[in-house]
Amino acid sequence: MGRVIGKRLFSIMALCAMVGLLLLPIVVAIPSLASGEEAIADGAKKEGDKVEKGRDVYYKTEGVVVGAPAPKTTDGPKDYPRYNFESRVLLWFANQQHLYYGSFVLAVPIFCMIIEFMGVVTKDKALAKRYDQLAYDFIKISLTAYSLTAVLGGILIFTFLTLYPAFFSYLSSVFRPVMHIYALMFVAESGTLYIYYYGWDKMKEGFLKWIHLSMSVILNIIGTLLMFLANSWIGFMMSPAGVDEQGRYLGNIWHVIHTALWNPLNLHRILGNMAFGGGVVAAYAAYKFLAAKTDEDRAHYDWMGYIAMALGVAFLIPLPFAGYWLMREVYAYRQQMGITLMGGLLAWLFIIQATMIGILFLSTNYYLWQAMGRMRGAEKYQRYIKYLVFLLACGYMVFITPHTMVMTPAELKAMGGQQHPVLGNYGVMSAKNGGINVIITTTVLSFVWYMRGNKVSTVSWAKFGNIFMGVFFTCAYINIIGLAIYGYYIPANVRVGLSVPQVTTTLSCLFFMFALNSMMMKGAKQMGPIEWGKISARSQYALIMLATAFTWMMGLMGYIRSSVRLFWHVNEIMRDNSPWAYTHTVGFAANMISANVLFFWISILFVFWLGSLAAKKAPVEAKAAVPGSVPQPAGSH
Amino acid sequence: MKALMSLGALVGVLGLLLLGGMIFDVVPSNTVRLIEGYMPMQMLAEVACYVLGFAGLSYMLNAMGMGIPRFWQGIGFWVFLMMYLKFRVYPPIPFSVRAMYGTVALVTVFMWVSASEEDWKKFKQPIMNVLDAQTGMNRMLRYMYLVLLPILIGGFSFNAMMPKSEEPIELRTVHPAPPASTKVQGKTYVLQTSQSPYRVNPEGKYDQEYSNANIVEQGMGRLMKPNANPWDEKNQGYLKYVREGGEIFFQNCHFCHGDNLNGRGLHAFAFNPIPANFTDPGTIAQLQETFIFWRVAKGGIGLPNEGFPWASVMPPWEQHLTVDEIWKVILFEYWHTGYYPRTWD
Prior knowledge:
The structure holds two protein chains of two kinds.
Chain A: H1 2-47, E1 53-55, E2 62-64, H2 87-121, H3 125-163, H4 165-174, H5 176-198, H6 206-238, H7 253-257, H8 262-291, H9 295-316, H10 319-333, H11 335-342, H12 347-371, H13 379-382, H14 385-400, H15 409-415, H16 429-451, E3 455-456, H17 462-486, H18 492-520, E4 525-526, H19 537-563, E5 568-570, E6 574-575, H20 586-617, H21 621-625
Antiparallel strand pairs in A: 1-2, 3-4, 5-6
Chain B: H1 2-23, H2 39-63, H3 70-88, H4 95-113, H5 117-132, H6 136-161, E1 181-184, E2 187-190, H7 208-213, H8 238-252, H9 254-257, H10 289-298, H11 323-337
Antiparallel strand pairs in B: 1-2
Helix pairs in contact in B: 1-2, 1-3, 3-4, 3-5, 5-6, 8-11, 10-11
């Protein structure tokens, strides 16, 4: 009894410690913010009437100038010290690796939270244990990756300080009021992560488990806030606010953080991190599946891959819409920036991006079709897969058709102009919105088929339900394609608005059809269990493809976002006067991204290997608990 | 079902015959015309008809016990698509785009033939047969591939490495990002906020909705409003300015951009690339009116760095026309093509 109370006390104390860690940066920040304001006021008093005021470049509000102007750098060892190598490439590498690991360690605890929650609410004890073990495995991997993230963060700062001292000094002077909060957030994140990890065994059941779950919520709040702060830096570099035209800080740190692109970036990054994290874990499971020696291991890693893929794709589906919002805000902020991205200098990179997005969805669909192979009864859908392939192929081809085609002058002449009269129409936004929505809707359809693969509905209205679903999907396709065509006949600003009903149609398919399908499959007759582990090796390669495409696309989009500033360190405020203030060729950028992707995968394999060393020593309690049992993912069956 | 499949089979056979005729130049590729205004959807619909036709054909052949092996179905469909893109669609599609489509088609054909274990087994059976070489025929094929494949790869490599006299491919930025502002005839125009002074309603106020309603119906070439004829001399305001813009256009621009504004003017084919086709939804319909203003005023010579290789002979019209004339001619271009200038609100 006393031991239980002791454990409870320990758990509550641990939770309080976490809350304390969460509040620590804020508490520490309040006096410094206040003293900052006092200092401004004192300064103003001392200077009497000589207070200099400036106008915020974005918010257009007036404020007291408290910062130095952005330095006007010159190419030389003072502002741009260098090794005998392109500094920008070094920084690019350091930044990208830090971002990969940062994204991974921020995403994995969110996964853990979801999976641990699934374990807590699942009634099947064996399955609950499996979920718990899975979440624990995830956090273990994340712990090793966390150290590497911190090391890479250090390397990044040193790279900044060594190669771009003037720029880094300016940026840190503007963000001075929150710099230490940022550092303290790291402390809080580390603290909570360790408490969460080491408290796992001590808080296994009942009330204590709920406390442990609450800890994961706090851990994720801290992680998300940390990411928001990091995002404010890049938001400021792209769309500065809180400073005047000379780049002088005007005393309002919220304006500096809350720039025009901050919120779209935040949303886009959260979803992106989750999709990326899902991809990496799915690839890990795929690798383990392919290397597995026993049926039991194959079943476990097949299941793990499925869960990770499902979570990743759940966040991938809304990602294009979040990206659309971001682009809309970019256009609203600076039309010039938007055109450079989507129609000008960087437009070809967007074609590559579209190609990668298509690969993600194609891989997902392919995995699901393969996964249907391990269900008895799913054969009835196999013969229709060719039509899904056709829809996906059409959507994909439209989605990747470039507006500006690469061609020889002879081809240009034969075509009779820069725009192809047939395919040129696929190169604009109206068609592309139609293309991607067809792809996503088809992915939803594949999911629906997968979810009902081995089941036969027993509800009395099953026939009506099937017809309704068929009609719903047909109408959805007609609506999406119809609106894409209609987009050519209306003004551009109205056309932009058409994306809303298109997205709504796609999301309606997702939510209504999933809900309806679940209702129809309640108490359904099972044709046979899911035979975990009996999936083709091709499906696992699809998962690896999915993860590689995620990684490559993250590298690409990061590069696009960064290079849209062209020759500015901070857009229209601080000019980049280094010799590398030009945009790389598409080929060079692609090679650089590939090198980053390769390095990340090699290094993460090392992390996985370290994780497997620890796993060998750990007792295989969870596996032994359910001999020969077949796990059933709660989300799908 | 059987009747439907028979119909599908008939469509498939007829389609294949038609495409075969186009490939061997017996039937011109425009025998079945790509209808202007509907071409993109027509192309997709045609391919969809072929797919349904092939499904019907496959069904019928299976019923007759003459089913085509999955291996040849996959390869056959990919070859069909390549042939369709090369010989059916006109004007010719640049190789880079056909290569992209070809790769996508290859991937999706693979997805189709390997979607289920049974299909995948069927697909790879002929390959495995040749590799196993249990029969004399397969053994012969295996030796043949052993010789042919390296020659083929060598041939491709040689072709890729061989110096060619063709002009190199160009990755031209057709719509380079405009500057934030542009100075024309001494006055600075902020591109994001400037407006055409002539896009006005009868009260003389800037009104895009009013002017949008008074244009020519896109694709049909008729007036959207019966009495909105700018050539009627009695018309005032917006329509009068369109008329004046039209006069400027036919005095200065139509020699290159054509009297239908489709980029096929008298001198058009002296240039490479030929002048912009304003009737294409990818040109002025995608751009803000101020973007056109900047491009007309500054011409090809005023293109920014990212517009490299600056393949444009457009004169800097600020040296020949007044600012008012430039705005009016832009007004006419939108009126005539039936497009609306892009706005961001």
